[in-house]
């Protein structure tokens, strides 16, 4: 069970986009995530006449390392660490370390 999943609201804690918030769009690997509005780069692309693609400079969102982001806690309005807890009915849920509030609704 991953601590950060698709659809979670996260905040960047290190790097050029420090302080930006966004939603996780996709989990690339075990350690890389694609976050909305974070780590935007401009990439030079060659034209491909077979596919009908034009060349030029394209703005893309690149994956960011999982160590550079933290889950955003709406109650405290800050970044927070995540832990796991077993409920009475046997479910394993994610909880915020600061206040013990359950992340999963």
Outline the structure in words.
The protein is mostly beta strands and 105 residues long. It has a domain at 9-75. The chain has no helices and ten strands. The chain has strands at 9-12, 21-27, 32-35, 40-45, 56-61, 64-65, 69-73, 78-80, 82-86, 92-96. Strands 6-3-2-1-7-8 form a six-stranded antiparallel β-sheet, with no helix packed on it. It starts with 8 loop residues before the first strand and ends in a 9-residue tail after the last strand.
Helical percentage? under 10%
Helical/strand content category: mainly beta
DSSP, total strands: 10
Gross morphology: elongated
Low-confidence stretches: none
Biggest pleated sheet: 6 strands, antiparallel
- Beta-strand level of the residues, as a percent range? 35-45%
**Residue-averaged pLDDT:** 93
Distance between the termini: 16 Å
Instruction: Give the spatial strand order of the biggest sheet.
Output: 6-3-2-1-7-8
Give the helix tally: 0
Order of helices and strands: EEEEEEEEEE
Q: In angstroms, what is the radius of gyration?
A: 17 Å
Descriptive keywords:
single chain, mainly beta, two-stranded antiparallel sheet, 45% strand
Quick synopsis:
With 105 residues, the protein is mainly β.
Which SSEs are present, and which pair or pack?
Blueprint (H helix, E strand, L loop, with lengths): L8 E4 L8 E7 L4 E4 L4 E6 L10 E6 L2 E2 L3 E5 L4 E3 L1 E5 L5 E5 L9
Antiparallel strand pairs: 1-2, 1-7, 2-3, 3-6, 4-5, 7-8, 9-10
């Amino acid at each position: 069970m991953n601590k950060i999943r698709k659809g979670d609201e996260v905040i960047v804690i290190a790097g050029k986009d420090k302080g930006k918030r966004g939603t996780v769009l996709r989990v690339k690997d075990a350690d890389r995530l694609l976050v909305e509005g974070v780590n935007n780069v401009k990439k030079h692309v060659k034209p491909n006449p077979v596919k009908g693609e034009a060349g030029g400079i394209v703005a893309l969102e690149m994956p960011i390392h999982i160590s550079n982001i933290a889950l955003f806690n709406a109650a405290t309005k800050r970044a927070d660490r995540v832990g796991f807890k077993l409920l009475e009915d046997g479910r394993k849920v994610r909880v915020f370390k600061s206040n013990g509030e359950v992340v999963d609704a």
